[in-house]
Amino acid sequence: MPLLITDYSWTQTTSTVYISVPLKGAKASQVDIVATDQYIKVHFPPYLFEAFLAQPVDEDRSIAKVGNGAALITLLKKTEQLWDQLTLPTTHKETKKELRAKALVKHQEKLCAASKAKSEKQQTEKKYALKTMMKLEEEEREHIQKIKDDERKKTNAELEAWQQKQHEPLHYEKSTRQTLKDISEKSPQREMSVEKCGSKSRTQPVELPAPRSSGSIQVTFTPRVFPTALRESRVAEEEEWLRKQAEARRTCNAALEDLKDLKEEERNPDWLKDKGNKCFATGDYHGAVNAYSLAIKLNRKVPSLYSNRAACHLKLKNLHKAIEDSSQALELLTPAVPANAAARVRAHVRRGTAFCQLQLYTEGLQEYLAALKIDPENADLQKDTQRIRDVIQDSTFKD
Q1: Per residue in 254-272, pLDDT tens?
Q2: Which of these, 101, 40, 112, 107, lies nearest to 72 by C-alpha position?
Q3: What is the CATH number of the domain that holds 359?
């Protein structure tokens, strides 16, 4: 049985009625408001406010707002006059029952109409977007076709010019041969040419160019080597890693009971990770641990969250927790592919550091060697690995 609200307040002018309903600490998302021309309902369990209006109002222009701990309803009167009372007398039980039933039916029809209008609007927007995309694609195809036609015309013109140029030497050679033939026929001597200079003239023999000498050019080529890339043998592992990364991005346990009071951004693991990184950068390691822990509650498949929290635990000297988080990160960083190599190096180093601080130098050395195997050119790793070897060797000598 709902608890009826009686401590509401209302005021009016000749054209407007203002109703204020206290929300008793309820959130805005929990408040359900139904408003028609003669019926008002504000429901937030277990409380209920009902008003059967004494005069009809214009429901299309009326407004309901929720804020500052109250529901504020502004009703526009259909006739400008002052009301003697807000609601119908309690004696009109049958009238109230009928008004309630009509109001609920009308509200349901209004919701259905709004849903249908929204669906139609979405369909219209989708059709418009589809037409726009088709138009853009058609314009793109026409543009590409125009470029092809222009290139074809240009190529044909160049080809025709080249062919015409190829015929010109042949025509010149034929005309030269004909001229020499005519000269030789007119003169019994060997081929001569006549050169006039002023009033004098003399004959000169025509010397044809000697045939071109043949020869060979030595050409050497760089040998082409096609080594099989390492990645070609790791395609399956890389595809598995990409699949796991995509699955991790889709995973989010935002519906957990203890997370319902969080803000919208606090339900985003990426936002929490950035917050943890900022806290770590400023030295707030406890705040960083809290941020990473909440992000892990939301998504337990992101290895960087565990690895970053392990770094915080190292700063706070929570060495066993650092080992646990580093191990969890390495479990998620499988299969081992180049894309996650840097992350695996960090996880091994953090777990090795925790082992060394617990004076388990042999275990720590194994972790550093595993990191060095992934990144053998890392000078810092080489130096740290050698230091751990020296510590182990010194302790052996002392024993």
Answers
A1: 545 556 666 777 778 888 8
A2: 40
A3: 1.25.40.10
Q: Does a structural domain hold residue 120?
A: no
Nearest one of 336, 375, 367 to 350, comparing CA atoms: 367
CB-based contacts of 234: which residues, under 8 Å, 6+ apart? 337, 338
Beta bridge partners of 65: 72
Task: Copy the structure tokens of residue 272.
Answer: 């929490």
The conformational region for residue 197 under phi > 0 = left, psi -120 to 50 = alpha, else beta, is beta
**C-alpha–C-alpha distance, residues 279 and 13, integer Å:** 55
Look at residues 102, 126, 157 and tell me which one is the last residue of a structural domain: 102
Three-state DSSP string of 155-220: HHHHHHHHHHHHHHHHHHHHHHHHHHHHHHHHCCCCCEEEEEECCEEEEEECCCCCCCCCCCCCCC
Helix (H), strand (E) at residue 21: strand 16-22
Going by the DSSP 8-state scheme, the letter that residue 222 receives in this structure is: P
Q: Is residue 236 part of a domain?
A: no
Token pair recorded at residue 373:
């195997």
Report CA 255 to chain centroid distance, whole Å: 23
Q: Cα(375)–Cα(344) distance, rounded to whole angstroms? A: 10
- For residue 65, give the CATH number of its domain: 2.60.40.790
Residue 19 lies in a domain: yes
Per residue in 162-200, pLDDT (tens digit) is 888 776 655 555 555 666 566 555 544 444 444 444 444
Q: Domain range spanning residue 337?
A: 258-398
The helix/strand/coil state of 62 is: strand
pLDDT single digits (tens) 16-60: 989 888 887 788 788 888 888 888 888 888 888 888 888 888 888
Q: Are 100 and 53 in contact (CB under 8 A)?
A: no
Domain C-terminal end among 102, 134, 156: 102
| pLDDT in the model for residue 348 | 95
The verdict on residue 147 lying in a domain is no
Is 0.85 topped by the overall pTM? no
When divided into structural domains, the chain yields a total of 2
Which tokens hold the place of 13? 């002018």
For 259, the token pair is 């997370």
**Beta-carbon count within 10 A of 312 CB:** 25
